[in-house]
Amino acid sequence: MKYRRLGKTELKVSVVGVGTWQFGGEWGKSYTQDEVDRILGTAKEMGINLIDTAECYGDHLSESFIGKSIQRERQDWIIATKFGHQFHGHMNRTNHWSPEEVQKQLEDSLRALRTDYIDIYQFHSGSDASFDQDDLWTMLDKQVQAGKIRHLGISIGDNDNLHQTESATKVKADVIQVVYNRLDRKPEEQVFPSCQRQDLGVLARVPLASGLLSGKYRPGVVFQQNDVRNRLQKVELTKKLQMVEEIRRKEVPEGVEMAQWALAWCLKHPAVTCVIPGCKDVEQVMSNAKAADWVSDDHPQAWKA
């Protein structure tokens, strides 16, 4: 595994993390505690130290799985979770952005995670109107001062949301999370340059394009009814998979797994600190972690011992 400095947080994070939306049951599979234990146990063995989750991946369900799994080794992990939504059922959420509601979400997340602090607490894909609340950020800053949050972050919903990115330093956020992958390069235009100017850590979510860059799917694939990818329109899905086939032929070196190539591709950008792919099982964790083998040591954020 390789490690990088997460912007001004100075945290030392593995270049590959673990995304955990799947633990909430919206990716075509329900999980048991034993399965989560094995996934996170393997991740640790592979050198991964960052877990990304959210309060609305299930009703704190993903957080609860994680909390039980790592409670005896909490100090070994960097936990990034999010706030702003409440889970009511499969792909059914409501937004909750008031300072009082968010403070309750924070306390609920701390209980679910079985911890007294969260390393990175992220504004979760909200509108600019929800973001532009001085009272919200004042409350969150007080939680940082109280030691319940180590660092604030912003998970932007739109890949070109420059308003929230540019406001990061103002609201004392140190980390930006954004969708970035070989099929979606929009952040390169404005968001990444802003992150670099502000010395923000960058977590790249959906680095495998919801699995489309894993190399497992071909045009014509049909996802299960309860799989979040079922939301993709057939025409859109077909177009993306055709792009994947072209990328496979022209860009992926012979003998390299496409998923590992796709993760390493994201990590080449000088703004990106860590990719946070989801993983359904132990084998996927191991494959994701091996992407570090294709990552250069001369990246601007490479950790210098």
UniProtKB/TrEMBL annotation:
InterPro entries named in the record: AKR_Detox_Biosynth, NAD(P)_OxRdtase_dom_sf, NADP_OxRdtase_dom
Gene3D superfamilies attached to this UniProt entry: NADP-dependent oxidoreductase domain
Taxonomic source organism: Polycladomyces subterraneus
Keyword Oxidoreductase: yes
PANTHER family: NAD(P)-LINKED OXIDOREDUCTASE SUPERFAMILY PROTEIN, NADH-SPECIFIC METHYLGLYOXAL REDUCTASE-RELATED
Domain of life per record: Bacteria
Protein name in UniProt: Aldo/keto reductase
Span of domain NADP-dependent oxidoreductase: 16-293
Keywords attached to this entry: Oxidoreductase
